[in-house]
Amino acid sequence: MSGRAGKTRNIFLVWLIWPLITLGIYHLVWYYKVNREARDFDHRIEVDPVKSLLALAVGWLLIVPPFVSVYNTGLRIARMQESAGLQRSCNPWIGLILFILAGLYPLYYQHELNQIWAHYKIPEEGEQVPLAA
């Protein structure tokens, strides 16, 4: 079984620089891409990246959806780590706490994703990589 690799990104650019330059739009693009990468990496991870993005972007109207979406994204990253043959090190509760604390969760989640891609020796985005489980 194999899946498609995602992109290794600089955690500080993801968290601070690109969102500042794009007035926050990059953050939404990043969030969509992270969830799409989870789906493309392992077909057993069920996620609709558009729904995840909408929960984050406009879910504030109902208060709860952004928190659920950020937590579930952390779970997906942990499942990706298992699929790559790594120990689960991504904790969705830490991601949720960092989300509440000034939106620091992109630092954490991108770091965890970068570990997966480093395990595969930093493949090109979209390259097929073998899954362990």
TrEMBL record:
<feature type="transmembrane region" description="Helical">
    <location>
        <begin position="52"/>
        <end position="71"/>
    </location>
</feature>
<feature type="domain" description="DUF4234">
    <location>
        <begin position="12"/>
        <end position="78"/>
    </location>
</feature>
<feature type="transmembrane region" description="Helical">
    <location>
        <begin position="92"/>
        <end position="109"/>
    </location>
</feature>
<dbReference type="InterPro" id="IPR025328">
    <property type="entry name" value="DUF4234"/>
</dbReference>
<feature type="transmembrane region" description="Helical">
    <location>
        <begin position="12"/>
        <end position="32"/>
    </location>
</feature>
<keyword id="KW-1133">Transmembrane helix</keyword>
<keyword id="KW-0472">Membrane</keyword>
<dbReference type="Pfam" id="PF14018">
    <property type="entry name" value="DUF4234"/>
</dbReference>
<protein>
    <recommendedName>
        <fullName>DUF4234 domain-containing protein</fullName>
    </recommendedName>
</protein>
<keyword id="KW-0812">Transmembrane</keyword>
